[in-house]
Amino acid sequence: MLRGVVTNPLIIGIVLGLPVAPLGIELPQVAAQSAQYFANLTLPLALLCTGASLDFAALKGEWRNTIAASIGRLVVVPFIVTLGAALLGSGEAIHGIEIRTRDAERAPRLLPEIQRLLAETDLTVARIAEAVGLNNPSYLIRLFRERIGRSPGQYRNETRRPR
Question: Average model confidence (pLDDT) for the chain?
């Protein structure tokens, strides 16, 4: 069993990516776009495989159990987990949601400052996120790509002022 875990490509990818993520190292555009194509395929493909493996005739015969299981997974279990976390004082998960929400509200207003820091300093993306008060550097990268149309690294290379 341990060998199966150690040789799992998903686990290997995660372990190799962990030290690279905080450094803000970016793939070349061609590699990043190719990886994005694969990433965009994963959810539709997983849903297609799941749907193809369902036996709808069996679901019709067990519709009460199907509805009960769906309500349990979509409503009851999340409610119990959230309630348990709140009661036990372990609001880390809830706090994480609050932090991401706060970042999402503030980040668009911070874009000019982020752009200035990218153009005028050698700070990493993680340090820039920290400097402007964002808790999540990966959110900064995602927001930057959505709003500016380029990654922070590409923006820095294009706007770098000679010294």
Answer: 81
